[in-house]
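Example (one chain per record):
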Amino acid sequence: MSEVLDEFEEETEESGSSALFYLKVLSLVVLVVGFGLYIGDVLFGKSSLDVLLNLQADKDTLTVKIKNLKEENAVLQKEYFELRQLDPDR
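Predicted structure:
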């Protein structure tokens, strides 16, 4: 009878350790998948896309503003140099 109990105890220990192993593996898989989804959302999520589109629009606006200011600066420099040459004091 003791031998049967010993065998049953060994089987229970083995199934308990294998269940614990599967639980650890399942937990690790869930953790890796969750982390992957989080990183994917950070890199490619809606908020990241909104920020990218806003920055591109700001860049376009600033580029147009720079072009306009350069043109205005050229006109003002031309006017300044024309006035400076006509000034008799200098």
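Caption: The chain has a mean pLDDT of 85.
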